[in-house]
Specification:
about 120 residues, alpha+beta, GMP Synthetase, Chain A, domain 3, three-stranded mixed β-sheet, 4 helices
Length: about 120
């Protein structure tokens, strides 16, 4: 199976939908921030591994606590994923922090500052 095949794209979106649902409704760990979203999922073509990018609204501590809580709940999450999806294998999940939204907000603020400074110096 090629990396960007239709089947792989469909599996990625199904796993992403299910993981979002499991994290939002099933996990009761207090370390996991209330506004946690799955931004991207990359299931390997052999279905053995899965990288999951998580975006957390909050500071560095909230992000680290959320990732730790998700790593501790990985067994339960895999079990629920296996129950909800009919895949040959249930992939081993690796949770990663997605800082792209945070980076975008930071860049937007910097651009606003530069444009405001330009207006004041004209």
């Amino acid at each position: 199976m090629k990396k960007n095949s239709v089947k792989n794209t469909r599996i990625n979106s199904e796993v992403m939908r299910e993981l979002s649902n499991i994290i939002r409704t099933e996990i009761k760990d207090p370390r996991i921030a209330p506004i946690t979203s799955v931004t991207e999922v990359d299931v390997a073509p052999d279905l053995r591994t899965c990288k999951v990018w998580i975006s957390v609204l909050g500071d560095e501590k909230a992000r680290n606590d959320t990732l730790l809580g998700l790593k501790n709940a990985e067994g339960y999450i895999r079990h629920e994923l296996a129950n909800n999806l009919n895949l040959r294998y249930t992939p081993k999940i690796t949770f990663l922090a997605d800082t792209s939204i945070e980076y975008g907000i930071k860049m937007s603020k910097l651009i606003d500052e530069v444009s405001n400074n330009d207006r004041h110096h004209q």
